[in-house]
Amino acid sequence: MSLHINAKQGEIASTVLMPGDPLRAKFIAENFLEDAVCYNEVRGMYGYTGFYNGKKVSVQGSGMGIPSISIYASELMTSYDVKNIIRIGTCGSLQEHVKIKDVVLAMAASHDSNINLQRFAGMTYAPTASFQLLKKAYDVAASLGIEAKVGNVLTTDTFYHDDPEDWKRWMKFGVLAVEMETAGLYTLAAKHGVHALTIVTVSDSLVTGEATSAAERQTTFTQMMEIALSMAE
Ligand SMILES: O=P(O)(O)O[C@H]1O[C@H](CO)[C@@H](O)[C@H]1O
Ligand SMILES: O=c1cc[nH]c(=O)[nH]1
């Protein structure tokens, strides 16, 4: 049991999927897992363990932003026997060729977060995905007929930027999409020797202004869920 996760030892699988939205965790448990058991309701941040294709897997909401995912990921990494964390989230496209509902695998995460500047005394650290998980996700996606886009994402601390053109500085350097947790997750995974990967689905485009509804984000982005669930060991 840890401060924010109410599970006993053995109740959390070695592979944990982490959506930002706890209701997405509930949706996955109800629609994809067999024999799902809810192990956490603390702060409404649902966590479930069940079976997918006979493999034990957990799904734990992370909340939004680096501070929130850092609490849950740290507790999973230090208080439970978790070996793989796969974030499954939504993102905004920063590139014309990255379309709504495309699946993006985050090879690395640029960021504007002060957390890593403090951690590395003003120097820059490059948060990077586990190559093992990245390769596996790419191969699983291909086997499901999904052509995943692979590259750099931006993890931002700010959803509503003062300057609405701010994203263009990242676009010019080929960053594929923006979200709010991956740099924190990859840094903690490196610190604790855990494998981590982010798989995100494009929910809106900063390039075209297209957007999907909250209900669609919660329930219809199932390709990334299937890729991540298929990676359970
Ligand atoms: O859909 P999730 O996983 O929450 O991810 C994205 O959506 C939230 C912002 O709406 C941020 O958490 C961002 O990273
Ligand atoms: O952080 C996020 C998530 C989805 N879409 C965005 O524009 N930003």
UniProtKB/TrEMBL annotation:
It catalyses: uridine + phosphate = alpha-D-ribose 1-phosphate + uracil; a purine 2'-deoxy-D-ribonucleoside + phosphate = a purine nucleobase + 2-deoxy-alpha-D-ribose 1-phosphate; a purine D-ribonucleoside + phosphate = a purine nucleobase + alpha-D-ribose 1-phosphate. It comes from the Bacteria. Keywords: Glycosyltransferase, Transferase. It is an enzyme of class 2 (transferase). GO terms for molecular function: purine-nucleoside phosphorylase activity; uridine phosphorylase activity. Phosphate binds at G20, R24, R43, R87, I88, G89, T90. The active site is at D204. A purine D-ribonucleoside binds at H4, E179, M180, E181, S203, D204. Catalyzes the reversible phosphorolytic breakdown of the N-glycosidic bond in the beta-(deoxy)ribonucleoside molecules, with the formation of the corresponding free purine bases and pentose-1-phosphate. Belongs to the PNP/UDP phosphorylase family. This is Purine nucleoside phosphorylase DeoD-type. It comes from Pelosinus fermentans B4.
